[in-house]
């Protein structure tokens, strides 16, 4: 009862093993290009088409993110555009302040931080920031 294995099935099984082996080497080598791998591991890469090997990590790495700031929102002079935000600290400071407001000048990227006990102090922080800018920079 000798069973004969068809040559096509053997070839397909070895190709799958070669592809798996090639992907393992690709990951271990720090996601080196498949062209360089074919020069280094010619025995492993022999007979494997470039279209058969795809690496998700390499594909994601090629994607780029669209730029965030549009040309119309950029500032052309200091204090023309100020970004502000209120943050909550995970810990209360020694003075009992848990929140802080940030004011960032879009032109110079200069940043001011004001500590607060309560969020309702934001407007007074902005008034202090506005007075500071008016007195020192204009």
From TrEMBL:
GO MF terms held by the record: nucleic acid binding
Matches recorded under InterPro entries: GAG-pre-integrase_dom (IPR025724), Retrotran_Ty1/copia-like (IPR039537), RNaseH-like_sf (IPR012337), RNaseH_sf (IPR036397)
Domain GAG-pre-integrase: 9-63
Source organism superkingdom: Eukaryota
Gene3D superfamilies linked: Ribonuclease H-like superfamily/Ribonuclease H
Entry protein name: GAG-pre-integrase domain-containing protein
